[in-house]
Amino acid sequence: xxxxxLSKPTVSFGVALAVGSVANAxxxxxxxxxxxxxSLMKRMTGHHWVTHVAVIVAIYVIxxxxxxxxxxxxxxxxxxxxxxxxxxLAIVGFYLLAD
Amino acid sequence: xxxxxxxxxxxxxxxxFGVACIVATVWVFVDTLNAREANQPRxxxxxxxxxIFMWSSFLIGGYWYVVxxxxxxxxxxxxxxxxxHNYFMETKEHLVIMLLLLATYLPVAAANNLAANQEARRLxxxxxxxxxxxxxxxxxxxxxIAMGVKVALLARQx
Lengths: 99, 158
What we know:
The structure holds two protein chains of two kinds. In chain A, about 85% of the residues lie in helices and about 0% in strands. Chain A contains four helices and no strands. Chain A has helices spanning about 10-35, 35-45, 50-65, 75-99. The N and C termini of chain A lie far apart (about 55 Å). In chain B, helix 1 runs antiparallel to helix 5 (about 120-155) and helix 3 (about 70-80) packs across helix 5. Chain B is built from five helices and no strands. By secondary structure, chain B is an all-alpha fold. At the A-B interface, helix 1, helix 3 and helix 4 of A face helix 2, helix 4 and helix 5 of B.
């Protein structure tokens, strides 16, 4: 039998993936541009990268419970691809040009 | 000496699990192109394996990055390829977080009925297509970082 709807966890984790990707790029820029943010992140766990990972994983898990929008699969796929591409290019571009 | 060998084993395990994640994800992609009732359990198991491989690579690599890498970083920055750290490592350590999120999502997407649901199949194909692309890019970054250490040590000898 044909069934084209996705399960709720698929949608909510998909949106959380997009939110986590964008948050990852924004946190990179924030910590590299602000020594205060970098220093705070270093103080929290002893290493800024460990704090970075913990924050993004926490955002991913929390977003999964916050967002379960009624969006089509096409829109979900576009959201995931756009967030991964834009965040990836933002990170690559930042270290290539701005840092 | 023993510590150095241990560092190398940790680094090789990190790469090995990363490659295993890429291979498993390509498997999921190909199997999903031909998704039927019969191969659905296999797609789900391999997508779980891909996520486990990715988390293993990430945790081992993360330990190596925090504990062992500062010595290599100092060598790279004094050598002729400082960009191996300034650009490639800085980019790699942050792109890999997106790869981790994608690999974690793969088994969730693969839990849908792929044999009957064409839209779920499209989603799994996109996610399992993005992971090897990003993974290979990150493997390449790792190779350049290793070369950065090598050329710095060679430059010291000349």
